[in-house]
Specification:
mainly alpha
Length: about 70
Amino acid sequence: MLAIKNFVGWGMDRWKRFTVSDVAVFKICLLSIGALIGMYWAKACRKLAPFIWAAAVASYVYLIWRMVFCDED
């Protein structure tokens, strides 16, 4: 349980360092993943799936890089 508490504390410390543009990328990531989940229920929108996958993966990779590798100390 202590490991989870430490991990959440680490995440919250990193979140406090995010800028407005980082939060925008985070929201794009969540929106694109939600759109992908919803898109697979409708056949008409499936041709847009590769573009939304690209947005989801790119924003997710950016967020991981920003949280783990980018120290602004």
